């Protein structure tokens, strides 16, 4: 009987996990990436909008994607343990203030650590409310957002309006300037790729522009963010610690019955979540703005959550979602009207492809709507030369809604995500 009990259970869990994990093979992913590159290169040549794949566009997109990606990674850690974290925006706000306040008084490196620490404090508050006291996760997250906003506004008026701070440019809505963290280029690659991009060859120059943007003017925090993505994937999906943490988000009662301290893992996950969100806020204060500014998060905590959902609660998909949102956000910084106008042609092609797929699946109503919208987008592209600036500013949020609506059918959140758990239920 003992042999039967030890031999039977193990095969079931790996099969289930691999079934979820193997949604697309590496070959399929590479084919999708290659197809996307060909399509974007063709749109660039037809529209004449070289900014689509330029080094500057990609570099700006990467810079804007980092705080969104860190917020999404923060949400992933929390929700994989079963705690919904709507308070990411507030934790990012705390991170911006901590980084700007301490960074101005000492060094940007200490400011970076303080931004992470302020985010951890916000995460622990959320954990106490949701894990220990069983407060509804959404209510607690909204409270964290409001509390962070009010606290930082009060502290800014307390610390930045008098004395040395005021003399150096501080006021109730911003801190004095903070010294910059170092940026660097990858030696040899940046200049060579830039030269190839300037030839404007089909596909080759596009690839050179994209790669050039990924190796030019990099912040050390960007490199740290990439390392955190890789480390999070390895820790959560390749270690016993990660298996226990994810079990708390899938079935905490079963996890407790097997000896897992569910409260401890939830607390650790939400604290890490707060620290990552705080790091995203510190990036905004130290790299993007070089000071704390009231309202500088601009809803990136919520967009990070959208990127996490788009990525199906996995780091790889989350990184692609953050890159997409960062790219759309960068459009308004670099000749946005003409570049977004070129993207209308790309949207037309994608809508035609979607319509063909829906009609093939005999979803005639959805296919017809896609064709109708595609026709409208084509007419818009043909009769205009650029997109109005007001629409360009709304592009990141429009992309957020479109991506979430298109990806909703394939999502699988952790089974116990957002559910109230009380210690002892597994006994």
Describe the structure.
- The structure is a single chain.
- The chain starts with a helix and ends in a 20-residue tail after the last helix.
- The model is unreliable at 1-22 (pLDDT under 50).
- The protein is 73% helix and 1% strand.
- It has 19 helices and two strands.
Order of strands across the main sheet: 1-2
Count of helical stretches: 19
User: How is the main sheet built?
Assistant: 2 strands, antiparallel
Provide the helix percentage.
Answer: over 70%
Cα Rg: 23 Å
Topology:
Elements: H1 2-7, H2 9-21, H3 26-47, H4 55-80, H5 88-105, H6 108-132, H7 137-159, H8 163-167, E1 183-184, H9 189-197, H10 204-215, E2 218-219, H11 220-238, H12 240-250, H13 252-257, H14 262-288, H15 300-310, H16 315-330, H17 336-360, H18 364-383, H19 389-407
Antiparallel strand pairs: 1-2
Helix pairs in contact: 3-17, 4-10, 4-11, 4-14, 4-15, 4-16, 5-6, 5-7, 5-14, 5-15, 6-7, 6-14, 9-10, 11-12, 15-16, 15-19, 16-19, 17-18
């Amino acid at each position: 009987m003992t042999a039967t009990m030890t031999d039977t259970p193990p095969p079931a869990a790996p099969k289930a996990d691999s079934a979820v994990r193997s949604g697309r093979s590496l070959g399929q992913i590479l084919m999708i990436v290659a197809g996307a590159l060909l399509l974007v290169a063709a749109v660039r040549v037809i529209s004449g909008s070289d900014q689509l794949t330029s080094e500057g566009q990609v570099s700006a997109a990467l810079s804007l994607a980092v705080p969104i990606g860190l917020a999404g990674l923060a949400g992933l850690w929390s929700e994989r343990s079963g705690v919904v974290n709507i308070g990411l925006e507030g934790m990012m706000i705390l991170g911006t203030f901590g980084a700007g306040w301490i960074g101005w008084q000492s060094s940007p490196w200490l400011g970076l650590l303080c931004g992470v620490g302020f985010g951890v404090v916000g995460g622990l508050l959320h954990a106490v409310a949701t894990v220990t006291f069983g407060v509804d996760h959404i209510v607690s997250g909204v409270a964290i957002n409001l509390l962070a906003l009010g606290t930082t506004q009060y502290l800014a008026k307390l610390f930045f309006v008098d004395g040395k701070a005021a003399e150096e440019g501080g006021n109730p809505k911003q801190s004095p300037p903070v010294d910059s963290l170092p940026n660097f280029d990858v030696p040899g690659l940046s200049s060579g790729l830039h030269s190839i991009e300037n030839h404007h060859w089909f596909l080759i120059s596009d690839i050179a522009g994209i790669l050039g943007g990924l190796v030019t003017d990099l912040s050390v925090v960007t490199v740290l963010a990439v390392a955190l993505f890789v480390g999070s994937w390895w820790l959560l999906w390749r270690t016993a610690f990660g298996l226990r943490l994810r079990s708390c988000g899938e079935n905490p009662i079963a996890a407790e019955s097997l000896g897992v301290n569910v409260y401890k893992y939830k607390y650790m996950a939400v604290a890490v979540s707060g620290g990552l969100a705080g790091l995203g806020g510190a990036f905004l204060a130290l790299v993007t703005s070089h000071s704390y500014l009231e309202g500088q998060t601009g809803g990136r905590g919520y967009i990070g959550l959208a990127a996490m959902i788009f990525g199906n609660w996995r780091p790889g998909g989350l990184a692609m979602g953050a890159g997409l949102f960062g790219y759309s956000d960068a459009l308004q910084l670099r000749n946005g009207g003409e570049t977004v106008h070129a993207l209308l042609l790309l949207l037309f092609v994608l809508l035609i492809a979607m319509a063909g797929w829906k009609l093939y699946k005999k979803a005639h109503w959805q296919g017809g709507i896609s064709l109708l919208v595609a026709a409208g987008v084509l007419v818009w592209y043909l009769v205009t030369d650029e997109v109005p600036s007001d629409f360009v500013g709304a592009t990141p949020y429009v992309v957020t809604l479109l991506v979430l609506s298109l990806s909703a059918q394939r999502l699988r959140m952790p089974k116990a995500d957002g559910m109230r758990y009380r210690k002892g239920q597994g006994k």
